[in-house]
């Protein structure tokens, strides 16, 4: 029996270690290559760590403000992701309150109708969405990425579920004391739903930061685009791998923010899942 | 402050009126903003997208109604490039779905089970390592992976002495697309499975162990049936997501070699927003067809899996 346990232990370990090595290599390779000189990259065959660590790639990246203004792109991405996340939190908490705490005619019918419609595949609305963004004059502006995503139903569904777990007596007693809906929302419900708001906020940030299809459609102006769309251009600008260190350095700068977020808020990323599996009950 | 007298005067008269007004206004304050956003960015574009598929439209002028002509061309006119593009795109998209979805279910499940093993240490670290690629954008990830698979400069060339131009040769072009997809996609499902497995009662496992059931047996008769809802959920969601594949082939192979990794999403974008005059009506018809395929397959998956587990 104990022998059996140890065999299965080694199989489990072997599998996990192989996977972890494969999973880590690209990140390590990307980081170290961003500190390599082009001559080393081209000449010396493969080595995991650079012969000599150099910073010229990063200097060159930051100095190129004309064809690949990476600081500009990073700033755009930060502005978009932060504004989007804050607005998501406001919208989903207000809407979640409306659909779970307030009584108005047809409330649940309305909610489930919207939810049903939102299951319709999003491919169909991409082209008209572009036209609408264009009509608002939002093409090549940050609004194109901040606003449309606020219409989604997924997070509102989660917040509503979460709010249903909060006992109704809390608002009843506040109502007796003369508090209105806004007071109850603001001073009772909002503090209690903080965990679910943090989780939804984090995923909105990462989703907005990494969105690819939509920015590729909406931005043609190099100065206005977020970093994900910018990196697509880089392939041509630093083309055919003539400036690999700079290419890798740019990719590294693009992934730092989400990795930092993960480092500080790891438990919320992992927690999210309890919300997911909570859909069942 | 408004004049007190006036206020008192209005107060009695307006009380009922005000209460009713408030009854309508308050819900609208909470639900209204999102409702408006929903109408503008989901409902109207979806309806318009379906309408546009029956029109000739260049995104600039008003769409011109042409009935089923777009669909007829796409589905039946084998001399048309739209017909070839659609079926090539659909074939490639289906190939991507059929191979990537099982990988994105089975590998995370294996990781979750291996991490559940009592004797395995450093669970948190391993979990983080496997989760992190999911936080990296496809464009950044692709730049790194392309370098790894580069014939002269990458790891495959220098360490394994492979002389293949991966992105330009089949089946390697597909392989690098699947590698980056699995690398980035395993973490999310893994976390869902881990949480679900952690919720399965420990006594079940202990009882099975006493009865002499091996770990394989325990996996198939306890773990799998206990997490059937998360399994259906991830299966349906992962499949729907895979049908929308776009970034990986665009970045890794640009649809090549000879359009053999050119997926439907890329054709739709190209027709609507590519060089030259937009062919948005035709692109909309392709989008509607793709949407229908996704809907039908999601419904089938849900129906079949739900029935089999009951």
Automatic annotation (TrEMBL), chain A:
<feature type="transmembrane region" description="Helical">
    <location>
        <begin position="142"/>
        <end position="163"/>
    </location>
</feature>
<keyword id="KW-0472">Membrane</keyword>
<dbReference type="InterPro" id="IPR000515">
    <property type="entry name" value="MetI-like"/>
</dbReference>
<feature type="domain" description="ABC transmembrane type-1">
    <location>
        <begin position="74"/>
        <end position="265"/>
    </location>
</feature>
<feature type="transmembrane region" description="Helical">
    <location>
        <begin position="184"/>
        <end position="206"/>
    </location>
</feature>
<feature type="transmembrane region" description="Helical">
    <location>
        <begin position="243"/>
        <end position="265"/>
    </location>
</feature>
<feature type="transmembrane region" description="Helical">
    <location>
        <begin position="73"/>
        <end position="97"/>
    </location>
</feature>
<protein>
    <submittedName>
        <fullName>Multiple sugar transport system permease protein</fullName>
    </submittedName>
</protein>
<dbReference type="InterPro" id="IPR035906">
    <property type="entry name" value="MetI-like_sf"/>
</dbReference>
<feature type="transmembrane region" description="Helical">
    <location>
        <begin position="109"/>
        <end position="130"/>
    </location>
</feature>
<keyword id="KW-1003">Cell membrane</keyword>
<keyword id="KW-1133">Transmembrane helix</keyword>
<feature type="transmembrane region" description="Helical">
    <location>
        <begin position="12"/>
        <end position="31"/>
    </location>
</feature>
<keyword id="KW-0812">Transmembrane</keyword>
<keyword id="KW-0762">Sugar transport</keyword>
<keyword id="KW-0813">Transport</keyword>
<dbReference type="Pfam" id="PF00528">
    <property type="entry name" value="BPD_transp_1"/>
</dbReference>
<comment type="similarity">
    <text>Belongs to the binding-protein-dependent transport system permease family.</text>
</comment>
